[in-house]
Write a structure and sequence with these properties.
By secondary structure, the chain is of the alpha+beta class. 17% of the residues lie in helices and 46% in strands.
Length: 65
C-alpha cells in the first residue's frame, strides 16, 4: 500500500482509517500494488519502521514475499 498526498489536514483525517482497514476506500490517496520483490528508493535518508522497530538513515529498502 502506498499513500501519497501533500496536504497535512486530509492526511491526518485519512490516517486513522488504516487501523480499521478502510484506507482502501480513499482511491485518490491510496494505491495498492502487489509483487514478489519490491524495492523502494528514497531521495534522502529517512527513518523506516519495520515491525515496530525504527531503522534510521535508510535510502533503499527491498521487501521479499
Amino acid at each position: 500500500m502506498m499513500f501519497h498526498g501533500g496536504a497535512r489536514i486530509p492526511t491526518l483525517i485519512i490516517f486513522p482509517s488504516i487501523f480499521k482497514g478502510e484506507h482502501v476506500n480513499h482511491k485518490k490517496s491510496v494505491v495498492i500494488k502487489t509483487g514478489h520483490r519490491i524495492t523502494v528508493t528514497f531521495d534522502r535518508p529517512v527513518a523506516l519502521q519495520i515491525d515496530g522497530e525504527t531503522v534510521l538513515n535508510v535510502t533503499t529498502y527491498t521487501a521479499y514475499k
